[in-house]
Amino acid sequence: MASATGGKEGEEVGNIFKLSETTVLKIQKGDITLWFLNGSSDAIVNPANERMLGGGGADGAIHRAAGPELVEACYKVPEVEPDVRCPTGEARITPGFKLPASHVIHTVGPIYDSDKDPKASLTSAYENCLSVAKENNIEYIAFTAISCGVYGVLFNVHAWENMIILFYKITRIYTCILLKKLRQLLYLLSKTLQMALKRYTLFCSRINCIMFG
Length: 213
Prior knowledge:
It is built from five helices and seven strands; from the N terminus they run E-E-E-H-H-E-E-H-E-H-H-E. It has a single domain (about 15-210), classed as Leucine Aminopeptidase, subunit E, domain 1 (3-Layer(aba) Sandwich), CATH 3.40.220.10. By secondary structure, the protein is of the alpha/beta class.
């Protein structure tokens, strides 16, 4: 999603969760097209389609903010089959061009009504984003909630709780060896966010995740 209801843009609405000695997971509301950490080793994740030529929601917003150079760079990404530059669950990287973040990592999440194993495809999308980040020396990365728009994740507390726990499990495994710091931006409805974060906090306490913030 490109925006959220409730709260000001960029407002801190969640906590900062420590994943390792060098990595934190930060949950906040805001406009991902404005996010950056240092403009040189940071990246935002674009929830793209398989063609990688722009679309609706956050994908369209990122392309508009980056300027026409982004779609030109995407055209240059080799097709693995006709009209497919990035298959579902995979990730590709381009420069950020006019975006404040230095890079854009494009990934394609599952369409929940048609994917045979949407959880596995979504997990693969996040893992491949982190792998691409490592390969390109990205230290800071911001995610939108992939597949949570027209691709079909329902906006309810249980869905968001499961999504946040999935984020945690993936990032917890990867961050000790991949990234110095991880920033994750979730654009959530305020009531859903409040309850999901409460449950996530309980989840962290059950597994002795160190929290601060």
